[in-house]
Write a structure and sequence with these properties.
By secondary structure, the chain is mostly helical. The protein has 10 helices and no strands. The longest helix has 33 residues, at 45-77.
């Protein structure tokens, strides 16, 4: 039996599938409890349904990319492990980068021919350890952090929270980091722009930004409020479509 056959064995399917099933059940429980809590607070059911629709559409499109990530990693790590990682807590860019880096450290490439059980153990351990700190820090500091976001820190008499500025700063930093890495591909050694790198990510970002601006304009100026539920998902779809068109 090859290593890849072992990584696609029934045992791993049972373990990983069981964990994914537990997470799915927890999600359904939280959805039901949130709906009941909203009704108990007197929230508008139309707005709650709109929030559910927006969340569903926002989750559906990224799941296509996640599925592609599972298929890409399954060739060397089997299906159960990437499925578990990208279904529960992992991110597509994180999992692929860490798996590649871990494979390089053990002296192999992410290919079924080079994979060994020892290499898989190291890769799986590194993929898990490097992303666990978000859960640990949230468990320890989340309650106090939420109070600060809401401006309710009892230790400091602040007038308001920093939630909105923190989210804006985080979003700008994230966008700048990604766009900066792509812009760096155009800079040569002497510091001049050569425009010789891959400009597809920049085009996708521009198309998605213009699409979001268009959706926002229609929602605010033309009073098409229903577009708010699909603006993010629609922008992502148009951005991915531009990448497909450029690639062909």
């Amino acid at each position: 039996m090859s290593v890849l056959d072992q990584l696609n064995g029934s045992g791993l399917y049972l373990i990983c599938g069981g964990i994914v099933l537990i997470i799915a059940v927890i999600c359904v429980i939280f959805l039901v409890r949130a709906w009941r809590a909203g009704k108990a607070l007197g929230m508008d059911t139309v707005k709650m349904k709109r929030a559910i629709t927006s969340s569903a559409t926002f989750s559906l499109l990224p799941s296509v990319g996640i599925l592609l990530g599972v298929l890409a990693l399954s060739g060397s790590l089997g299906i159960p492990w990437p499925w578990l990682r990208l279904s529960v807590i992992g991110a597509l860019h994180y999992e692929t980068q860490v798996a590649s880096a871990a494979a390089e450290q053990v002296g192999i490439t992410l290919s079924p021919e080079a994979m060994t059980t020892q290499a898989f153990s190291t890769i799986a351990l590194l993929m898990s350890v490097c992303i666990m700190w978000g859960m640990i820090l949230t468990t320890i500091f989340n309650r106090k952090y939420v109070k600060k976001l809401q401006g309710k820190d009892p230790e400091k008499k602040t007038g308001g929270g920093f939630g909105d500025p923190a989210m804006i700063a985080m979003f700008i930093g994230m966008v700048s980091a990604y766009l900066g890495s792509y812009l760096g591909g155009f800079v040569s050694g002497n510091g001049r722009f050569t425009f010789s790198g891959d400009w597809t990510p920049l085009l996708v970002a521009a198309v998605a930004a213009l699409a979001m601006a268009g959706f926002t304009w229609l929602a605010e100026k033309k009073h098409w409020e229903w577009l708010d539920n699909f603006s993010i998902a629609g922008s992502m779809l148009l951005g991915m479509l531009s990448a497909v068109l450029v690639g062909h």
